[in-house]
Every structure is written in C-alpha cells, then in structure tokens.
Amino acid sequence: MVRLANQQIYRRLGYTTMFKELFIINFHMINLLDSIQYIMDEKKPHSEIGFIGLGIMGKPMAKNLIDSGFKVYFFARKQKIIKEMVSYGGKYLNKIKDISEKCKVIFLNLPNSKDVKNVVLSKNGLWHSLQKNTIIIDMSTISPETTKEVSKKLKTKNVFLIDAPVSGGEIGAINGDLSIMVGGNKKIYNKIKSLLSILGENITYIGPTGSGQITKSCNQILVAGTMVAVSEIFLLAKKSKCNLNLIQKALLGGFANSKILEIHGKRMIKKNYKPGFKAGLHLKDLNIALNLSRSLNIDLKSAKYSKKLMLNAVNSGEQNKDSSIINKIIQKNNK
Predict the structure, then answer these.
(1) Residue 36 DSSP one-character state
(2) Which of 59, 216, 284, 321 is the catalytic position?
(3) Domain spans of the chain?
(4) Protein fold of 48-208
(5) Do the domains 215-332 and 48-208 match in fold?
(6) Residue 332 catalytic?
(7) Distance separating alpha carbons of residues 96 and 120, to the nearest angstrom
(8) How far is C-alpha 322 from the chain's CA centre?
(9) What DSSP state is assigned to residue 182?
(10) Which residue in 38, 84, 181, 281 is deepest, having the highest Cβ count within 10 Å?
(11) Which of 121, 127, 206 is nearest to 165 (CA)?
C-alpha cells in the first residue's frame, strides 16, 4: 500500500530517480523517529501527577514524588496540609475535578471504599473530567469488590485502575521503602512501575484487578495477629518480672524476629501510641478481610480475635491511636 502510494506521488510530481531515493530515505527516517518517540513516550511516566489523600501515609508519598522531580497537583481540605505541601513544591487545586483535567496519572490514598467511590465516580469528583487513557493508582485499602466495581465503571471511559495498597507504615512512606501489592492490567502496571519504585522497594504484581486488595487483607491479618502475639509475650515477661527491652533484644536475634516485634514492640515498651497506622483504620481492614473470608466460607479464628481486640480499642475511644494500642487492651484484660 505504501509503495503504491509512493509510486503515484512520483508520477504526479515527476521526481527523478535521485529524488525518488531521497524521498524514500526521508519517508523511512520519519517513521523511525516516530517509532523512537513512541517507545520513549511509552517508557516515560507523565511528569504531571495528581494526588488525592494526604494523610499520614499519602503526604510523605506525595513529597517523595516531588523530590523525584515530578509536578504533583494535589487536592486537600485542611489549610495546614495545603500550606505545607505548597511550601514543599506541590501545586494546589481547589476542586477534585481539576486534578483529572490536569493529570493523566492520579494517585489515591483514601480511608475507605466509600471515599474512593465518591472521589472517582461522583459528579463533584474525577469522573466528568477524566481524560482517555488516564491511569488511577489507588493505594487505599478498600474491599476487592469495590475495586472491581470502580474499575469496571472506569473502563467505559477508557480509564485504567491499578489497585496498589501498601504496607510499611508512616516510616516506610517517609523512607520510600514501602511494600506495594499490585492488582490490575499488567501492561498498565509496567507503565507505572517506575513511579511505584519511588514510593516502595518491595513491589509485587499479584494478578488481575482486586488482587492487590486481597493481598493487603492477608497482610493486615498477619500484622494484627503478630501484634497480639507480641503483646501476649510482653505480658508474660512483665508478669514474670523480666526486662522487656532485654526480652525484645533476645527475640530480635532469632526466628521470632519481625518488623512488628522491632517497631511495634518498641511502641509497646515505651507506651507510645502516636499513630503510624490508626486503630480505626486497622479495624476497617480486618472487617474487609473477614467479609472476604465469609464470602469464601472460611473461618479465620485468629483474625476474629484480633478484630475483637481492635474493636475494643476503638470503643474505648482509642481509634486515632496507633493500632498497636491493642497491647493496652490485652494488659487491661489481664489485670
């Protein structure tokens, strides 16, 4: 087809053989340059990024993106956060829809499923101004069902959703060494993997949409259960009049070693429950995990016990304390 078209051009314009050859060389050079540009565009992340959800985790994530040279456009309601982020180099937009008008890569880090649906799908949210081929990277912890529902709706606009919940707490978000669990279209994941590597070190593609959220449920069960175990061994050691710092030091050197024992164990010993991850949010995550288990007809007894303790903490007014506050509940129950 291309050769035939070229022959017609030659006849009409009366090119000499030399000009024919130059024309062909030029034609192929243009195609080559277009191909190179296409490859570069495919591999190069968008320089303008949207970010919604600047809480304990989201704020340091957004700052790490700014530090890496990206223009980060954000939406926030609290003046304190707006001032802090603007002074750090962020670009404030006062309407959520302005984010989707400006950016084709948008990060979310929101408290729950309802918030994600409102921000993405509501008339005052991203929905009406979403551009074709936009990629939404949802780092919130929400139900897999909601993730699939939102993703299905976005596909009608040729917009892609990647579920990429994280683990590692505030410290991991600040240091950029979070563990990130990814679900969604693998080709889209490959396009934004370099962005995720700014925020985390252990980045794992799990599978289709919702797989990241299922993995996060597994993570939250394990974290909560380990915090219960650490709380109980500290209770045992304390009642036996042993030094908790030395107990922790000894256990960190063996098979019992874990991030929970190291980081949350330190919180428990010092009784410092300043939130890295709030108890109220961990309770929400355990409810998501248990809802999933019920749908699969699975009985997760340790997860139920962890949820009971977390609920006790929340009902005691400790919902905004770190989730390791369940240590206090276990001690209280054993006085």
Answers:
(1) H
(2) 216
(3) 2-43, 48-208, 215-332
(4) Rossmann fold (3.40.50)
(5) no
(6) no
(7) 9
(8) 20
(9) E
(10) 181
(11) 206
Q: State the angle between helix axes of 211-239 and 244-252 in degrees (0 to 180), rounded to the nearest 10.
A: 130
Rounded CA separation 99/51 (Å): 8
Query: How long is the chain?
Result: 335
Looking at this protein, which amino acid is placed at residue 116? V
Q: Write out pLDDT tens, residues 58-100.
A: 999 999 999 999 999 999 999 999 999 999 999 999 999 999 9
Q: Specify whether the CB–CB gap between 292 and 282 falls below 8 A.
A: no
Q: Give the residue from 52, 62, 71, 161 showing the smallest Cα distance to 109.
A: 52
Q: Is the distance from CB of 116 to CB of 96 less than 8 angstroms?
A: no
Q: Tens digit of pLDDT for each residue in 208-238?
A: 999 999 999 999 999 999 999 999 999 999 9
Does domain 215-332 sit in CATH 1.10.1040.10? yes
Buried b (16+ CB within 10 A) or exposed e, 167-198: bbbbebbbebebbbbbbbbeebbebbeebbee
DSSP 159: -
